[in-house]
Amino acid sequence: MALVDFMKRAYYAAVGPPTTVKKRDDAIRIGLLGASKIAPLAVITPAKSHSEVIVAAVAARDRKRARQYAKKHNIPIVHSTYQDILDDPSIDAVYIALPNSLHYEWALRSVQAGKHVLLEKPSCSNAEEARRLFEHPLVTAPDAPVLLEAFHYQFHPAWQTFLSLVHHLPWGGTVEHVYSQQFLPNGYLDVDDIRFQYALSGGCLMDLATYPLSCVRQVLGRREHLNVVEARHRPLPVAADGSEVEPQIDVEIKATYITDSEKTAKIRGDLLYGGGFSFLPASWSHSLPRFKWPMTEALSGEILVDGQDDGQDDGSSHFVQRKVTLWNHLLPTIYHRIDICDRHFLRRGEELVKTWDEVQYIKAYNWPEGDVRSQTYQEWWTTWRCQLEEFVNRIKGRAGSGVWIDGEESIAQMEAIDETRISNMNSINVMKLEDTAAYQLPFPEWDNLQPITPRLDFDRVKANSTLTFRPKLYSIMPTQPQTFPTAFFLCTEV
Ligand SMILES: NC(=O)c1ccc[n+]([C@@H]2O[C@H](COP(=O)([O-])OP(=O)(O)OC[C@H]3O[C@@H](n4cnc5c(N)ncnc54)[C@H](OP(=O)(O)O)[C@@H]3O)[C@@H](O)[C@H]2O)c1
């Protein structure tokens, strides 16, 4: 039976349910900016089972490719440019799955065009862009279009069940340590993938590792600021001739954090995960692809449950420490498991008298029975289908499941990425500098930074080039009012 359920979930998730739903007259018409790889999983298939969503248009840089994509996915309108989608009055909302370096610009353009926006993660190239986007008056206005960073995993009942388990420990206390990991097997991505291009704001921390970072932040709560203790990266391998291809690209990131209240967190992500087969010679097995589950694990502090006065006859004290592990926060619909392990300790003074474990395993393909949300949600809904449900609920002004990612959270996530990146790589993801002549230092208090200006060597900086300086981010704003973009870059601190 479990196998049948598994196959049904996997089939419905990948292909869609066997029956197509009738679309309502007031369905939200979504336009796709880019004929991206992720859209079928993230929007096109989920929309098939949603009566209030129609994927109505697509635009790609190459119109022929857009036409082929539209034909394959039954998308009625093909536009020549992304802007044409924004100018199309029949489109209500857009899905932006462009390279990260284009998220800020196209999200802001979309909001200016009055479209609701489902914006791929990470929301922007850096925190400065994120603040400008999510704090923009057009985004914060009461009747503003909906803008959602697509951290889809958060919308699934498995993640929410895991979170409620770690946030409501039966004996009180809080999580003291959290770890999260995510890997892609070596060879899964093409060598020219957007993730391996620095000018497109690629890299592991900006892509795969945004998940573990987001997961640990969710577990510790948004009030806990993550201070980076250590961050290490593995760069993109050098080319066959020994030259560095994209020296600023990290393919693996490991980072350790401590919060102000001394809770700790660790993350690990790898875009080219391979090797480690002890039974094979390391010299040729290191590049063999390897699989590891996405996983998030939260460990509570030790809690005293029975003291000497009210508990054990032999004068010992009873402590419990809970570890909750979610296996596969990324694709929980296919398979996941939540392990709850309670480690009990009996201690008499300094002496450990006895220890034992109690373990439970939980699955949450839907909200708990009796929860009204379980009547709408289906076991075969993917994280993306759950996300689409809540995106639509928000646009329609309905309460929905209660799960949401607001602008403050998206900004905090980008700040955590920036801080990790600065402490590790002494650089940050930058935007293109469009018109060098039009920029000046914006704030009076930045006067003391004037000496850096000659170092930027504006005369020699070509328009549309990408600049990286170390190690602090400054933003340079256009002197003339213009829509886009502000340039952000790093300068050596003086
Ligand atoms: N939520 C998730 O689970 C998930 C999973 C994967 C990716 N993502 C995110 O989704 C976004 C897209 O990822 P993807 O894997 O779908 O990427 P992709 O298909 O390789 O690229 C997405 C689109 O970017 C456009 N593009 C515009 N300028 C480009 C340039 N200079 N070079 C290359 N492409 C350019 C292309 O549009 P045209 O069609 O116009 O050529 C392409 O269709 C990224 O932000 C990524 O982090 C999210």
UniProtKB/TrEMBL annotation:
EC class:
oxidoreductase
What Enzyme Commission number(s) does the record list for this chain?
1.1.1.179
**The keyword Oxidoreductase appears for this protein:** yes
| MF (Gene Ontology) | D-xylose 1-dehydrogenase (NADP+) activity; nucleotide binding
Q: Where are the transmembrane segments?
A: none
Keywords, A to Z, come to: Oxidoreductase
What's the protein name? D-xylose 1-dehydrogenase (NADP(+), D-xylono-1,5-lactone-forming)
Which organism is the protein's source? Aspergillus brasiliensis (strain CBS 101740 / IMI 381727 / IBT 21946)
Q: Which ranges carry the Gfo/Idh/MocA-like oxidoreductase N-terminal domain?
A: 28-135
- Pfam families with a match to the protein in the record: GFO_IDH_MocA
UniProt keyword Oxidoreductase present: yes
Q: Which reaction does it catalyse?
A: D-xylose + NADP(+) = D-xylono-1,5-lactone + NADPH + H(+)
PANTHER family according to UniProt: OXIDOREDUCTASES (PTHR22604), TRANS-1,2-DIHYDROBENZENE-1,2-DIOL DEHYDROGENASE (PTHR22604:SF105)
- Family the UniProt entry places it in: Belongs to the Gfo/Idh/MocA family.
